[in-house]
Amino acid sequence: MAIPTLYEAVALGIKAITSDPWTEEIAHGLNTVRVLPKAPQIEHTVQIQKFHCWLAERGTTPGEMTARAKIREILGVKAS
User: Domain count of the chain?
Assistant: First the structure.
C-alpha cells in the first residue's frame, strides 16, 4: 500500500471519525486534525477549514488535480 500524503491522511481520519453513527458533523472552523505517521514519526496539525479550502480548489497541475480527486474519492464528495 502506498504511503498517503498529509491531506490523504487527514481525509482518511475525517472519514473514519464521521463514519460512526454516534458522531455529529465536524465543524470546519478552527478545529484541527493531528496526523502522526508511524515511521518516521513526525506530527502534523492541519486546520479542517484550511483542508476543505485546499480541497475546494481545482489545482494548477495534473498532479495537484489528481491528488484532490483522490481525496474527494476518499471522502465521497464531488468536485465543486
Answer: 1
